[in-house]
Amino acid sequence: MSSRTRVPTIVDIARQAGTSIASVSNVLNNKDGTVGADLRARILAAASELGYVRNAVASGLKGKQRGLIAVLVPQFGNNFFTRICVDVESVAREAGYVVIICNSDESLEQERAILERLIAQRIDGCILCPALSKTENAELLRQHRMPMVVLERPLGTELPEHDFVGHDNRQAGYLATRALLEAGHRKVAFIGWNSPISNIRHRADGYLDALREFGVAPRPEWLLQGELDYDEGRRMAAGLPFGEITALVLANHLDLAKGVLVELRARDLHWPDDLSFVLIGTPEWCDLVSPPLTCIERPEAEMGRRAAELLLARVAAPAQTGPRIVLPVRLRDGQSVKTISPGDFTR
Predict the structure, then answer these.
(1) Architecture of domain 60-167+300-327 in this structure
(2) Sign of torsion, CA 176 177 181 182?
């Protein structure tokens, strides 16, 4: 087994720090009164570099399972993730497991601290949606041979052979745009999150795919991507040429979308009469606004079930890698898309 996948021990720390195992043990157990400040700093630096996490309960549980799994998501206020967690918990409970649900708030430092605590408490496995789609904290789980399923944000070749469950973001952008094109629209804009996460950016790729399929030349100035917040949504919407475009793909359902809708109302623009649009995502409020919105529905419940089942299978057989699962999305009809005739293209 390579040093990248082997769980680091105090022997490794002692070797890297150039000291004795006893000194390392004293420092890590806060019994370092006889250890000088320089050596203590060297030991702690070696432990951090190696990704060492002290196992708080391993001595009494060696070879046993605790019946605990964790789910760590980056946006607990995002109902996409909370819906997934509901079904993870349901599957795990039926299998006799308790689920610990945590939120990194898109912070790599917070994610690292949570994972270190979870490893120390010797959970049986973890479903991780990596903050900002970064690999380093997932690598920490791999170092400790922790059964893991990566959720929604693929890590590519940087973390090989990891189990994965997600949905097709490119298809989401494509279906949203196609629904508008099939309704006769040819002047279709796009507003989304300028995300560091690759699969979020695939929604814009799907938008462009659909335009090409219908022979519509994309207009770069109509493809807008910005920060994930309310004010940015209002700003981007305010910059759209509403006298020219007839439709909009709204590629994010969080505060960005709320800002766009508020700006439309502030300009006395009504859907679908003044502007048709399709929203990617199904927030609770999508059926409460009037008229209700046409949306792209993601398979949150199935994602939760499949991720839990895959993780439990990995807990039972740690050496076995499961399939890479990418689930399809579907268009959910609402009343925010208006069918127009060719004569309306010049509106």
Answers:
(1) 3-Layer(aba) Sandwich (3.40)
(2) negative
Strongest mean pLDDT among 45-59, 142-156, 239-253 = 239-253
Q: Are 127 and 151 in contact (CB under 8 A)?
A: yes
| Tokens matching residue 79 | 């109902």
Structure confidence at residue 80 as a pLDDT band (50, 70, 90): very high
d(CA 273, CA 250): 17
Beta strand 125-128 pairing with 68-73:
parallel
CA distance 26 to 24: 5
- In the three-class reduction of DSSP (H, G, I as helix; E, B as strand; rest coil), residue 267 is classed as coil
Q: Domain map of the chain by residue range?
A: 10-50, 60-167+300-327, 169-298+332-346
Residue 318, SS3 per DSSP: coil
Selection from 156, 117, 84 nearest residue 311 by Cα: 84
Q: Do domains 60-167+300-327 and 169-298+332-346 have the same CATH topology?
A: yes
The span from the CA of 249 to the CA of 243, in Å, is 17
Q: Under a CB-based contact definition with an 8 Å cutoff, are residues 81 and 73 in contact?
A: yes
SS (H, E, C) 32-54: CCCCCHHHHHHHHHHHHHHCCCC
How do residues 29-66 score in pLDDT, each as one tens digit? 776 567 788 888 888 888 888 878 765 544 444 445 68
Token duo for residue 2 = 């390579």
Residue with token string 């659909």:
210
State the pLDDT at residue 59. 42
- Domain 169-298+332-346 in CATH 3.40.50.2300? The answer is yes
* Model confidence pLDDT, tens digit, residues 197-235: 888 889 999 999 999 999 999 999 999 998 888 999 999
Which helix (H) or strand (E) segment holds residue 294: the answer is: strand 294-297
- 161 pLDDT above the threshold of 80: no
Select from 270, 240, 259, 268 the least CA-distant residue to 336: 270
Q: What is the CA radius of gyration of the chain?
A: 24
Which two tokens mark 59?
A: 């001595």
Q: For residue 313, what are its two tokens?
A: 């299978």
Tokens, residue 80: 């996409």
pLDDT band at 305 (very low <50, low <70, confident <90, very high): very high
